[in-house]
Amino acid sequence: MAQHNELGKEGEQLAINYLQKKGYKILDKNWRYLKAEVDIIAQKNNTLAVIEVKTRTSDFFGNPQDFVNPKKIKLMVSAINEYVTSKDLDVEVRFDIIAILKNKNETKIEHLEDAFLYF
């Protein structure tokens, strides 16, 4: 497996662990709909958190969250509309990014709630 794929899987597991410690229930991971993939779908109280995980070893080219583009956002919104409808959920939906910088010396996790408001 390519090194960046391994880093991505490791980042997703770090994000899941982080969310569970914060009281989120993980409903799905790597959920697919048409061309979209949602990294993590979690719930806390009556809020469905749709989470894109971005993991990098360095912020030399920018912060991890800077790599979520408008096309990805559009795909995620479409996918989560299908998810909520197909599961007949009555919840508030929020789109988050978990940005992870992981190198040999440290791991930094930043949870950006309602992240798409900033785009």
UniProtKB/TrEMBL annotation:
What protein family does this chain belong to? Answer: Belongs to the UPF0102 family.
Phylogenetic placement of the source organism:
Bacteria, Pseudomonadati, Bacteroidota, Flavobacteriia, Flavobacteriales
Q: Which Pfam families does the entry mention? A: UPF0102 (PF02021)
Xref: SUPFAM superfamilies: Restriction endonuclease-like
One molecular function GO term is: nucleic acid binding
Domain of life, per lineage: Bacteria
CDD domains attached here?
PoNe_Nuclease
Record's protein name: UPF0102 protein LPB138_11770
Tell me which PANTHER family the record gives: UPF0102 PROTEIN YRAN (PTHR34039:SF1)
